[in-house]
Specification:
Amino acid/polyamine transporter I; two-stranded antiparallel sheet; about 475 residues; mainly alpha; about 75% helix
Length: about 475
């Protein structure tokens, strides 16, 4: 291995770092929102099936490619087949785009944590507070820089002293916070102005009970596609991160066992996050309180904390500490992927490259912040919505590039180099590969079909043809 590169000291460090990458803001707000929107337990059931099949296939492919080639995403594909080197370049684009805005969202979360620490949090629950904050010309930049500087410092310290140590400290704490707040949410009870009383258990039933009402084939396919897109957000696949982390994994690590543990950790956090958020929002606002994206985390939940009275400040602090941790672990993995790739491109040391990537991250994040004020404009997106700079970068990276990369990766592994290439790495040092047959079927047939559908959906072609 290149001496400039580090490695995880053992399987626990790898599992916690990879799980930290996977457990991000998407687990905290996107998974609960989709579960509420797409039939509660029905969405959860479909998602679990996809995690055990597609999730395992995509994670296995990325991590095995990284460990076998001992290279990062930019060069890994080209080292296997020069004709497929372009796939590494496509993969490099994803973290580069995500890096431009992830620290901006991290700054928003940091601002709310600051509010709950220094005030009672009541102001954060007022109508228009979130919009007023993000459209400010200076505050979003200040808090983005605080969040980003912490990220840069951890990546600057390297794999063992930075990423692994941070993950070993943060991930257990993150899990305890999520479980604690989830239990608290289930104990909530509130009577609204119409005299209707709702409890946390009522909200849990809304979350977990499968809703088959009005289910059609078209609706089922939309739920399936929602669950599959969440898989990309949740497991950090098809963006080079897991290839990079795989290149740091030692040969004696049992890959299948580690991958299964990563899936269990990540999916468990997503499920518990739903138990934490949906019952709390339901108790105070009913189904009308369920919003998507920023409105759930930055508008609905602060109102929930305000409605709790004296305990709201304390719960708000715990919640936003937890979300800051989740955002940091994901942002660290994104930056590490860029640093690792650039170390190979420029044949330079970690510290010098880290500073260069840090400057890129700061400049682009400032531009994204200004996209809500001095650089504000709206453009139509293929999914029918309109967006600003942040929305454009998010759409291109997550909705367009990631399904395309997954599709091409499955074609490459399934039909060009053949699944046996991956299987050989999984069986390294006499390790078992119990899901070998399933992996072969998924990577050759099922996954390319689904990835192709997701990619076509991202282009808006189904809507153009009147199929949505």
């Amino acid at each position: 291995m290149d001496k400039k590169k580090g490695s995880f000291t053992g399987s626990l460090g790898f599992i916690l770092a990879a799980a930290g990458s996977a457990v991000g803001v998407g687990n905290i707000w996107r998974f609960p929102y989709l579960a509420a929107k797409d039939g509660g337990g029905l969405f959860i059931l479909i998602y679990l099936v996809l995690v055990l099949t597609f999730g395992f296939t995509l994670l296995t492919t990325d991590i095995a490619i990284g460990r076998k080639t001992r290279k990062n995403a930019l060069q890994a594909f080209g080292s296997i087949s020069p004709k497929w080197g372009f796939l590494g370049k496509l993969t490099f684009l994803v973290p580069a785009l995500i890096m431009t805005y992830y620290s901006v969202i991290g700054g928003w979360i940091t601002k709310y944590l600051y509010d709950y620490i220094v005030t009672d949090g009541v102001e954060a629950a007022e109508d228009g507070y979130f919009v007023g904050f993000i459209t400010s010309e200076t505050l979003p930049i200040v808090f983005m820089l605080i969040f980003l500087l912490v990220t840069i410092w951890i990546v600057y310290r390297g794999v063992e002293k930075g990423i692994e140590q941070f993950s070993k400290f943060v991930m257990p704490g993150l899990l305890l916070l999520i479980i604690g707040i989830a239990i608290f949410s289930l104990t909530l009870k509130h009577t609204d102005t119409t005299g209707v009383t709702r409890t946390g258990i009522d909200g849990l039933i809304v979350y977990l009970k499968p809703d088959f009402k009005g289910l059609t084939l078209s609706k089922f396919l939309n739920i399936l596609l929602d669950a599959m897109s969440q898989l990309f957000f949740s497991l950090s696949v098809s963006m080079g991160i897991m290839i990079t982390y795989g290149s740091y994994v030692k040969k004696e690590t049992h890959l299948e066992k580690s991958i299964t543990q990563i899936e269990i950790f990540d999916t468990g956090v997503a499920l518990i996050a739903g138990m934490m958020i949906i019952p709390a929002v339901f108790v105070f606002f009913g189904m009308e309180g369920m919003g998507s994206g920023p409105s759930l985390m930055f508008i609905s939940l602060p109102k929930v904390f305000a409605a709790m009275g004296g305990t709201g400040k304390f719960v708000g602090i715990l919640f936003f500490v937890m979300v800051v941790f989740a955002a940091l672990t994901s942002c660290i993995s994104i930056m590490e992927t860029l640093v690792a790739n650039c170390m190979e491109i420029f044949h330079a040391g970690r510290k010098k490259v880290c500073m260069g990537v840090g400057i890129f991250a700061v400049v682009t994040a400032v531009i994204i912040c200004l996209g809500y004020n001095v650089l504000y404009f709206e453009v139509p997106l293929p999914n029918g919505s309109t967006g600003q700079l942040l929305d454009m970068a998010d759409y291109i990276s997550n909705s367009f590039l990631m399904p395309l990369i997954s599709f091409l990766t499955c074609i490459f592994i399934g039909w060009v180099v053949k699944p046996g290439w991956i299987e050989g790495e999984m069986l390294e040092n006499g390790a078992a590969f119990h899901k070998k047959r399933m992996y072969e079927i998924m990577v050759r047939y099922v996954a390319p079909l689904m990835m192709g559908i997701l990619f076509l959906q991202s282009t808006g072609i189904f809507g153009f043809l009147g199929w949505e």
